[in-house]
Amino acid sequence: MIEANGLGYEVILPPCIAEKVPATPGDRVALEIYAVVNLDGNSGRFTYYGFTNAIEREFFEALLTVASIGPRSAARAFSAPMSTIAAAIDRGDHAFLKGLPGIGQQKARDIVAKLQGKVAKFLLIRDAPAAAPKPIPDFADAALEVLLQLGYKRAEAETMIRQTIEADPEIRDAELLLAEIYRHKAKEDRRS
Q: Under a CB-based contact definition with an 8 Å cutoff, are residues 79 and 16 in contact?
């Protein structure tokens, strides 16, 4: 949750971006925002995606030009540094791309077909070092094991655990932690 001028906004940070943003409540953060309007009948809802600079946001927008990639897929796929993903696109590395969360064989082909040869400026950026992630508390080890057994990648599972604990620092039990992760995922799925 980001607070700006007294209003709170839920901003989705792609995994690679979340690693670079300070996680301590009250820290000042400047983000480049990409807003998406989701229409449902006569009502609409905004979903905000945050980036640490305009170039990252522009790369995200480039991913969105691929017909089979929506904002949620692009955000999930942004789990490696931008220059690494851009290099894989430029060299046509389908294997690397399909290893990104939410990107299968067909989406990897679509990305290369649409963006190969168009990502040169993203190759030149020096990726900022990620902030050292806070260690996962001991009680969360059991939750991590469950998430790994459910098929989540370690980095993705650790990110979900950290985000959930940061959102509710009172959690001190693996079972409660998993329940909160489930609630958060269910909420995200309803929005998609």
A: yes
